[in-house]
Amino acid sequence: MDNDGLSNEQTEKVLQFQDITGLDDMNVCRDILIRHQWDLEVAFQEHLNIREGRPSAYATESRAPAVINDRFLQHVFSSARLSPQREPNGVGGIIRYVFNYMVNFWYSAFSSILSTLLGLFRDQESIPADPLGDVLKFIQTYNEKYPEHPVFYQGTYSQALNDAKNELRFLLVYLHSESTSEAVAFCRGAMSNAEVIEYVNRRMLFWACDMASHEGKRVATAISVRTHPTLLIIGMRANKMIIMGRLEGDCSSEELIRRMDTVVNDNEVWLNQARQDRLERDLTQTLRQQQDEAYQRSLQADQEKQRRKQQEREEAMRIQAAIEAEQLAEQQRKDDIERLKLDLAEQVPSEPEAGAPDTISIVFKLPSGLRLERRFRNTNTMQDIYNFIFCHPDAPDSFEITTNFPKRVLECSGDEPGQTLLLSGLKNREVLFVADLEA
C-alpha cells in the first residue's frame, strides 16, 4: 500500500479495517475508509451491508445511472449450439462468407442501437409500483427452489447500480425465467456451485429478479436480455457504467468462472484507474480540508490575538480614564477646599492686642513641625480655633486638635459653633497638637 499522504493513525485504521473485514487489497481498505471520513465503525457497517446484500447509505437515488449497452465493448459468450458451417471454398464461397459476416455484423449493430433507443423511450414509462417488492419476492421464491447461490443484493436495480458505481465494484445481473429448461438447469448446476458462489461473493455485487415481474421486465428491456439464461457484468469504465460482459446460455461451473474471470481481468484496470482517480481526489480534498482547517485555526488564533490586544487597549484606556477621573476628582476636592478656606478666612476673628483683657494665647504644633502662636478672646469658640488652623496654608485639609496631657480630642468642628474657650477649659499658653487624619 502506498502510504503517501496518510498519517500513522490513518495507516493503523487501514490495518484494523483489513483485519476485521478480511479484504486482501489494502488499497481497497484505504479507499473505503476515505469515503467514510476515516470513521472505522461506519465504514465496517457499510462494508457489512454490501457483503450481506443490503443497500448501503450511498444507494439512496431512485433513478439508476445510465448504462451503456454497446456489444462492441462487451465480451459476449454464448453456449447456443449452431449448425456446423463448412469452410468457404473458392471465390464464390469467400464472397458468401464475407457477405454473411457483414450482414451479421450490421444486423447486430442495428439491433443494439434499436434496443438502446427503445429502452430510452420505455424509460419514460411509469415506474413500477413496488420494484423492491418484486426483488424481495423473487429472492424468497428462489431460496425455496435453489437454496445454494451467491448472496443476492436486497435492493432495486437502481440501488444496485448506485452501490456498484460508488463502491467501484462489478455488478452481476441475472434475470431469471422459470419457464425455460436451460435457466432451471443453470440455477441447479453452475449457479449453485461452491466455487462460483465464492467467486461472485468475493468480487461482485449480485442482483437478480424474475423476468415475469414488472421490475424484471423493465430491466430486461433496458439491457436487452433476449436469451435465457443470461448474465451481465456491469462496471465503471471511463466514468461511465457500461455492460462489460454478456454470458448467454447454460454452461458448466468451470466455464462460468472462466468467462467471468476473462471479463474481470480485462476490465479490472478500469476500476483500478477509477479507484486511483477517486483516491487522488479524496486525498486532494482531504489535504485541502486540512489546509482550510489549518487556515481557520491560524485565522482564529490571529483573531484571538487581536481580541486580546483590543481587550488590553480597552483595559488600559479604562484604567487611564479612571486615573484621570480620580485626578480630576482630587483636583476638584482641592479646589473646593481652597474656596472653602477663602470663605472661612473671613470668619476667623481678628487677633486681640497683646495684654488685652480676657485673652489667652494658644500654641499650635502642626504635623509639619511648624509652631503657631495666636491670641484669642475667652468668648471665641472652638469653631474659631478650627477655622484658624484650617485656613492656614501649612495645615492639613483634614485634621483633629488634641491636648498633650491628659490627651483628649477637642470637639472644634461641626455645624455648631461649639463651646467658648473659657468653658472649654483652655489655659493661657496651652499647647495644642494638630493631627493629620489623612496621613
From TrEMBL:
Residues 355-434 form the UBX domain. GO terms for biological process: ERAD pathway. The keyword Coiled coil applies. Residues 290-315 are annotated as: Disordered. The keyword ATP-binding does not apply. GO terms for cellular component: endoplasmic reticulum. Residues 302-315 have a biased composition (Basic and acidic residues). PROSITE patterns: UBX. GO terms for molecular function: ubiquitin binding. SMART domains: UAS, UBX. InterPro entries: FAF1_2-like_UAS, Thioredoxin-like_sf, UAS, Ubiquitin-like_domsf, UBX_dom, UBX_domain-protein. Keywords: Coiled coil. This is UBX domain-containing protein.
